[in-house]
Structures are given as C-alpha cells and as structure tokens.
C-alpha cells in the first residue's frame, strides 16, 4: 500500500487544504498519517476524520524579540529528532506539507530520510516556515501567479488551493433551520479566521442595529468571543467555530465579510461569494493578507478595507456597495481561471511518490 504523511498546523488555514486532499488520497489507495503539534488546532481537526495523528514538539520562529526565541529552537530540534524517528517507523512514500512552524522539522526530517516532499504555499510571498523548508522540498505548489517569482524555478508549480468538495454542496434550507432565520431576507456571513478577530467582532456588533434592518447576520467570532448579551437578538446568530454546517452557511450567505487568509479567500472564489476583505494589518503580521486581498481586489473579486481604517460607517458603506454590485463580483469570479487544484496536486503526489 502507498503511504503518505501530511503535515501542517498552527491555524485552520494550514490544515483545511490537507483535509481537502483526504478523499482523493483515500480513493487512490494511500495509507495516510498526519504529523502535527501536540495540542494545536490541527489535532482536533484531523482526528475528527479518523486519520492517525502523531504529535511532535513544535516551537515558533519569530521575526521579533521574544524571550521564547531562546527556548523554542530547542523545541524545534526536539521535533526534528522526533520526526526523523517517526518517518523511519511510518516509511511514507512522500510527505505533503501545508506549512506552519510544526511542518519545518517534518520537512527537514524527510530530507534526512530521503523521502520526497511537496510543499504548498498559500500566500503571495512565502512565510518564514516555508522559506526554511523550501530548500528541502522536491516541489513547491502555490496559489497565485505572483508567487512564482519568489520560488525556485525548477520546483515551483501553480496549482491553486485545494478546496473541500463538500463546501460546494451546502443547503440553504438546512442553514435557515440551523440559524433560526426567516426566508427572503438577505444574509451576511462574517468570518474572523479560526481564532477570530476581537476588533472586527467589536465593529460588527456595534453596527448590528443598522445591519439587522436590512440583513440577517451569521457571525463566526472565534473561540471565547461569544457575546451572551446578544444571544437572543433576532436575525443574529453567533458561533465560536463551525465545521459540519459551514457548507450550509456559505450556501445561505449573500455577502461575506472575512479576513484575507489565502485559503479562506480561495474558498470564497470557488463559491463565487461577493465579499469584503479586512486583511490582518501589517503591524500585526508580515503583511501577507494585505497582498492576498489586493490581488483579489485587482481581479474584481473583492472589496478591501484596511483594518486601520475600519469603522462602523465604513463597514456599512462597503456592505451597501458590495451588495448593490454583487452580480458584478459574481461574474468576475465565474470568469476566473480557477484550477482544479485537488486533482492537480493529487497527480503531482502520484508522480513524485512513484520516483
């Protein structure tokens, strides 16, 4: 039996593309194992699919000063030795990495074991973890044409992002029942990312009195970010995190307000959902979400609001504009040259695993 190890973690965006590959890999007859951190979000997400999960030590590699910078390299080194032993035991034909810091020791260990590695980079410019891992990779997949200039020519392949097929099969009726909403009134879906955004949550909730006059609002606010004082508000449904019902919520949404993580926006593109992107600010990140958002804005897929300029009035005006122009956004996305990313990556895995 063919064997593959998947790795990636830290945020849901480093896990969901791996999940999108699971049905195809299983159909091709692969035995699948997953390597992630001991208690990261990837552990909970992957174990629900009954895939064998192996936790290793993981440290974060930071671009800024932090006391943990003195201890985390030892965690990474420990993770590397654990990954070397694990790969020796599992003996996979290939490793597929979606990035995140836990993936670095796994990719380095695979090179040590002479196991081919395919990396997927979601953002326009590679993150630090993937920068460290790319020299050890056999091939590097990417989402955006702009990314090719940052990758080694012999390794880079434009594949797009793997999208879970079930996201395309949602039911509006199930979502209406799940949220307790009425038929006929437009629905806005707000997604703050897997850990939520306190600032976006605050602005959305301040805007609710105006929003609820015209829309019903589904708010995915992140763990620990529920506001109990709004629990009985008609037309407003808030959840920390949604898994199984997400496809239905997408089907119901007429407009989406979202962070600009690469996987999230590629899902919006696949679903042709008119959207407003509020990228994580450069002050709180390396600026990758800003680049992602601007690329989508340039192609006519999204309306972008910089987090630093976000206010209730600016959000309300953006929602009015995007909803009024929603057909223009849908048509632009329908005309995009979106690839069948899952099939493209599966063919690449088959090719490299067979060498």
UniProtKB/TrEMBL annotation:
The alphabetized UniProt keywords are: Cell cycle, Cell division, Cell membrane, Cell shape, Cell wall biogenesis/degradation, Glycosyltransferase, Membrane, Peptidoglycan synthesis, Transferase
Q: What is its EC number?
A: 2.4.1.227
Q: Where on this chain does UDP-N-acetyl-alpha-D-glucosamine bind?
A: 11-13, 164, 194, 289
Provide the membrane topology annotation. Peripheral membrane protein
What superkingdom heads the lineage?
Bacteria
For the Glycosyl transferase family 28 C-terminal domain, which residue ranges apply? 188-339
Q: Could you tell me which InterPro entries the record lists for this protein?
A: GlcNAc_MurG, Glyco_trans_28_C, GlycoTrans_28_N
Domain (Glycosyltransferase family 28 N-terminal): residue spans on this chain: 4-140
Which reaction(s) does the protein catalyse, per the Swiss-Prot or TrEMBL entry? di-trans,octa-cis-undecaprenyl diphospho-N-acetyl-alpha-D-muramoyl-L-alanyl-D-glutamyl-meso-2,6-diaminopimeloyl-D-alanyl-D-alanine + UDP-N-acetyl-alpha-D-glucosamine = di-trans,octa-cis-undecaprenyl diphospho-[N-acetyl-alpha-D-glucosaminyl-(1->4)]-N-acetyl-alpha-D-muramoyl-L-alanyl-D-glutamyl-meso-2,6-diaminopimeloyl-D-alanyl-D-alanine + UDP + H(+)
The main location class comes to membrane
Pathway per the UniProt entry: Cell wall biogenesis; peptidoglycan biosynthesis
Instruction: Give compartment(s).
Output: Cell membrane
State if Cell cycle is listed as a keyword.
Answer: yes
Write down a Pfam family by its short name.
Answer: Glyco_transf_28
Q: Which family does it belong to?
A: Belongs to the glycosyltransferase 28 family. MurG subfamily.
> Tell me, what does this protein do in biology?
Cell wall formation. Catalyzes the transfer of a GlcNAc subunit on undecaprenyl-pyrophosphoryl-MurNAc-pentapeptide (lipid intermediate I) to form undecaprenyl-pyrophosphoryl-MurNAc-(pentapeptide)GlcNAc (lipid intermediate II).
Protein name according to UniProt: UDP-N-acetylglucosamine--N-acetylmuramyl-(pentapeptide) pyrophosphoryl-undecaprenol N-acetylglucosamine transferase
Organism lineage reads as: Bacteria, Bacillati, Bacillota, Clostridia, Lachnospirales
Encoding gene per record: murG
């Amino acid at each position: 039996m063919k064997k593959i190890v998947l790795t990636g973690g830290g945020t849901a965006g480093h896990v969901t593309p791996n999940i999108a590959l699971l049905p195809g890999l299983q159909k091709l007859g692969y035995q699948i194992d997953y390597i992630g951190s001991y208690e990261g979000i990837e552990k909970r997400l992957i174990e629900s699919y009954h895939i064998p999960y192996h936790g290793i030590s993981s440290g974060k590699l930071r671009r800024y000063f932090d006391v943990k910078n003195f201890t985390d390299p030892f965690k990474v080194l420990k993770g590397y030795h654990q990954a070397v032993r694990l790969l020796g035991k599992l003996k996979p034909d290939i490793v597929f990495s979606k990035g995140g810091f836990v993936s670095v020791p796994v990719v380095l260990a695979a090179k040590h074991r002479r196991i081919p590695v395919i990396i997927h980079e979601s953002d326009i410019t590679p993150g630090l973890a993937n920068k460290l891992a790319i020299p050890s990779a056999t091939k590097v997949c990417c989402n955006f044409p702009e990314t090719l200039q940052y990758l080694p020519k012999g390794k880079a392949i434009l594949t797009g992002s793997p999208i879970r097929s079930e996201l395309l099969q949602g039911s509006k009726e199930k979502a209406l029942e799940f949220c307790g909403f009425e038929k006929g009134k437009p629905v806005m879906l707000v997604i703050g990312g897997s850990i939520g955004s306190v600032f976006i949550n605050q602005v959305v909730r301040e805007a609710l009195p105006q929003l609820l006059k015209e829309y019903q609002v589904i708010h995915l606010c992140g763990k620990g970010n529920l506001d109990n004082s709004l629990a009985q508000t008609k037309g407003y449904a808030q959840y920390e995190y949604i898994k199984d019902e997400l496809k239905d919520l997408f089907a119901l949404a007429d407009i989406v307000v979202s962070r600009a993580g690469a996987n999230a926006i590629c899902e919006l593109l696949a679903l042709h959902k008119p959207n407003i992107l509020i990228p994580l600010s450069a002050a709180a990140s390396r600026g990758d979400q800003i680049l992602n958002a601007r690329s989508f804005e340039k192609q006519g897929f999204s309306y972008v609001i910089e987090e630093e300029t976000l206010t209730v009035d600016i959000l309300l005006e953006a929602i009015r504009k995007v909803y009024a122009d929603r057909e223009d956004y849908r048509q632009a996305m329908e005309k995009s040259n979106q690839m069948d990313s899952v099939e493209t990556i599966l063919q690449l895995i088959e090719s490299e695993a067979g060498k």
